[in-house]
Write a structure and sequence with these properties.
This protein is of the alpha/beta class and 699 residues long. The chain is 31% helix and 21% strand. The protein has a seven-stranded parallel beta sheet with strand order 8-9-7-10-11-6-12, with helices on both faces. Strands 13-23-22-14-21-20 form a six-stranded parallel beta sheet, with helices on both faces. Strands 2-1-4-3-5 form a five-stranded antiparallel beta sheet. Bound molecules: zinc ion (2 copies).
């Protein structure tokens, strides 16, 4: 007997209209079964999906090539999560499902799979035999204890609002322990924003729970490693999965807890393919699990969500203010280290053209002489953002983009940070031949050079000369170089570290007593309404790198060079008052009907010309006027992106806004066929690509 089966496969990104295709098999395979099916001339991986297949003659269908029945079917909650993500973010179910599975699954056969699963089952058995006995761990502080009590009784998502250095990781460890002790098959998912942060977290979890219970899941793994982690999670052998945003789609049949550390971090939002927010999906994933068992709220299968941050996203903060999330606060630092004092340097009163204000240089010199470390933050890599000729006005524009190429002095190149175009620095102005071409503005390389010059006569306590280092995407490109640089910092080899925001994230440096932000003013007056939120968070987080060792005799300081020391953002920062800052920002957002008081989506279009890109958006916008519910959604006119041309492709976007998330979702769902049709029609001619970004993080 032949059964027709709906199967989702990786189809082109916008074929959301046909969620599943149909194949036949001699068994009625349950939904969630992995299969390999013939598609055109190839064989591809697919997942048997829910719902009745279309009424077709099974005899006319191509048969499933292989059913990977050795593997337990992917669970119903997993399938619901994938289906939701596809619908919400306007992609096909197959695309989201396949992106969530480790690539080697495409090539593995039934026999290889059986062998691997047998090994995992043995491991799981051994684990069960050796009941988990938590090792002696530090006694929680009263604040941590209080947060954990709150956690134990939660009935909604929880926002752990803990200042930098307050010991959030210990709360995560104990929360995981609580749920693991609650059920023999319980699993926990712990997410961090960056791959770089996984090794130190993994070390702490392995130390607490043993290496056999913990696996990592992120894009930095080799394909075989990723498969091994995925199988361990899916089979239940692994009890704890640590990962980056992709881990939100891990198959975890016993999931009881999702932790999202640094939940405000923009890295949780994917920037290509399905543009999902792993933080938002974490909330939804737990809700799916809990809605399925309404009587069991607080039963053993209850799934909790714990979001943690010292500077929560305004979306999460608002949810806590309005009672949708429960707030757990930990304001004090472990070990009693004080939060750094803010020192604002008014750059209007400093020598003209000074990169670093003299009082800041003095403060740096004192730190070096005392054997303490400092951190200088500047959000541009390279030596200078532009190279210019003062005679004719030539600037180092990129031939392929509407952007400047950045001057990298170390390797004497002009490099475009958007398309990668790179060339040797010219000896003379390419326009007029003037030999005197000069850098404009500054980046990490220049700051490193300037600091080394300014501190050249300063000696460390051991009599050696000052050592300045730089950490950015260029200095850490080679594998292992980031770890080496972090180690040098920990070993006290470096006195002053110059870096981009990557140094502000999570790393626990014990001897930093001074952090300084340079060139931050652009964010105060940016057209992006989220810029102040990000700046506040960056300064709080990087300030949090300082003063972690309370035994150091001198108070730690956060310096900011600005032309606007009276700005309300700095007033709140001075008091370390995130709640005041958030209240003021939320008030502004509400008055302007911005998120989280409104809901947005962007449609982006790319084409050879700006006319084609905008023309597509205009045609799609026209088509929207006929749709039911369009009056609840505002469609703004198409505009070029801030960087309009990248790699010779013109980019435009159109903003959609609605006071109701549900109305926006209904509209987007109804609009999708019209968008696909517009793409196929005359207005889509010459279009390179297009995509919808729901809840975009940058406009
Ligand atoms: Zn010139
Ligand atoms: Zn370029």
């Amino acid at each position: 007997m032949n059964h027709a089966l709906p199967v989702v496969v990786a189809t082109p990104s916008h074929s959301g209209l046909a969620p599943a295709l149909t194949w036949c098999h001699d068994e009625a395979l349950p939904p969630g079964t992995l299969v390999r099916v013939p598609l055109g001339p190839r064989e591809v991986l697919g997942v048997v999906w829910d719902g009745a297949p279309p009424a077709v003659d099974a005899g006319a269908l191509r048969p499933v090539a292989e059913a990977l029945q050795a593997l337990a079917p992917l669970g119903r909650h997993w399938r619901e999560l994938v289906a939701f993500a596809a619908r919400y973010y306007q992609r096909s179910v197959g695309e989201v499902a396949m992106a969530a599975l480790p690539p080697p699954l495409r090539d593995i056969n039934q026999v290889q799979l059986q062998r691997r699963l047998k090994r995992l089952a043995k491991r799981a058995e051994a684990l069960e035999a050796s009941a988990f006995v938590p090792p002696a761990s530090p006694e929680p502080s009263p604040e941590q204890r209080q947060a954990l009590d709150g956690f134990a009784h939660a009935r909604q998502p929880q926002l752990l609002f803990g200042s930098t250095g307050s010991g959030k990781t210990e709360v995560y460890l104990r929360a995981v322990q609580q749920v693991l002790e609650g059920a023999p098959d319980a699993q926990a998912l712990v997410m961090v924003p960056e791959i770089n942060l996984t090794p130190q977290l993994e070390a702490r979890f392995v130390e607490r729970f043993g290496a056999d219970r913990v696996v990592a899941l992120h894009s930095g793994l080799t394909p075989p490693q990723r498969l091994a982690s995925w199988l361990a999670a899916h089979s239940g052998a692994a009890r704890i999965v640590l990962g980056t945003r992709m881990a939100v789609f891990a198959s975890l049949p016993g999931l009881r807890l999702i932790v999202v550390d640094e939940e405000h971090d923009p890295s949780y939002k994917s920037q290509d393919g399905a543009r999902y927010s792993a933080r938002d999906l974490a909330i939804y994933r737990a809700k799916l699990a809990n809605d399925a068992q309404p009587t069991a709220a607080h039963g053993p299968a209850y799934c909790r969500v714990l979001l943690g941050s010292a500077t929560p996203s305004l979306e999460s903060w608002h949810a806590a203010e309005t009672g949708r999330y429960q707030r757990l606060a930990m304001p004090a630092r472990i070990g009693g280290g004080a939060l750094p004092r803010l020192r604002l340097v008014d750059m209007n009163h400093q020598p003209r053209g000074a990169v670093l204000a003299p009082p800041l240089v003095q403060a740096l010199a004192e730190r070096v002489a005392r054997g303490e470390q400092s951190l200088l933050l500047i959000n541009r890599r390279g030596y200078a953002p532009v190279l210019a000729c003062h005679d004719c006005g030539w600037k180092s524009g990129c031939p392929q983009c509407s952007a400047h190429r950045v001057f990298h002095k170390l390797d004497r190149t002009l490099r475009c940070h958007h398309c990668g175009h790179s060339s040797r620095v010219p000896r003379a102005c390419p326009e007029c031949g003037n030999l005197d071409i000069a850098p404009l503005g500054r980046g990490t390389e220049q700051l490193e050079e300037v600091v080394a010059q300014l501190l050249v006569d300063v000696r460390r306590p051991d009599g050696r000369a000052v050592r300045v280092a730089r950490m950015d995407a260029d200095s850490t490109r080679l594998k292992g170089s980031l770890q080496a640089q972090l180690q040098a910092m920990h070993d006290g080899e470096v006195d002053v570290l110059v870096g981009t925001q990557m140094v502000a994230k999570g790393h626990d440096f014990r001897r930093i007593t001074l952090v300084a932000g340079v060139g931050v003013d652009a964010a105060l007056f940016s057209s992006d309404f989220r810029a102040p939120e990000r700046l506040f968070s960056l300064l709080m987080q990087s300030g949090g790198r300082a003063g972690r060792d309370a035994s150091l005799p001198h108070p730690s300081e956060l310096w900011v060079q600005t032309g606007h020391p009276q700005h309300p953002l700095f007033v709140a920062l001075k008091r370390h008052d995130y709640p005041a800052f958030a209240a003021q920002q939320l008030q502004e957002r509400e008055a302007a009907a911005m998120p989280p008081f409104a809901f947005q989506a962007l449609v982006r279009a790319e084409a050879r010309t700006q006319e084609v890109a905008q023309g597509f958006l205009l045609a799609a916008s026209d088509a929207a006027q006929a749709l039911p519910g369009h009056e609840q959604v505002t469609l703004f006119p198409p505009v070029p992106l801030a960087i309009q041309r990248v790699a010779n492709v013109e980019r435009a976007q159109m903003l959609l806004e609605s006071p109701s998330r549900a109305a926006l979702q209904r509209f987007l769902g109804a609009w999708q066929p019209a968008l696909l049709q517009t793409r196929q029609g005359p207005a889509g001619r010459g279009l390179v690509r297009w995509a919808v970004d729901v809840d975009p993080l940058s406009l």
